[in-house]
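Why does residue order matter? Because the sequence determines the fold. Keep that principle in mind as you read this record.
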Amino acid sequence: MRQPVEIIVNGERRLAAVETWQSLLDTLRDELLLTGTKKGCDEGDCGACTVIMDGKAVPSCMVLAVAANGKEIITVEGLADGERLHPLQQAFVEQGAVQCGFCTPGLIMNAVAFLKENPDPTEEDIRYAIGGNLCRCTGYSKVILAIQSAAQAMRRG
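Structure:
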């Protein structure tokens, strides 16, 4: 039985009819056609599906779409300002932190939420913050450099 949900996604009010068991991840990808959010483990372990819901980073595979009704969701598609990339997106490109790209949206979304809470993190802070994001390609060194670089750029304004 499908149920209507209304979600504010990337600043836009979106309506969808979802199954009561359907995840926010599947709703974003299949109903709203926002495929930047990746489906990895589908068990909340890999971080590939991380989005920001009401200001907090969450694994969207673990949130029921009906529980997101009325919530504000930001996906990787909502970060850029037109052609101008978000500082984290830009830093990932500049620092070579993008390899295959599968984990990148989740890492970036997690880092966006993290830097709002901690705009001047240590390397240890960053390592802890991205601990729930699995990546098989980068080895995390360039990811950490990108987050440090973005934090510095964001502090400068």
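The chain has a mean pLDDT of 96.
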